[in-house]
Amino acid sequence: MKYLLVTFCAAMSLNLYASECKSYEAQVIGEIVKVSKVQDVCFYKIEVSSINEHLFCPLTKEEIEIGSVQFEAGYHEQCPHRFGGNFSGILVKGRDGVINFD
Question: Is the model's pTM score more than 0.90?
Answer without folding.
Answer: no
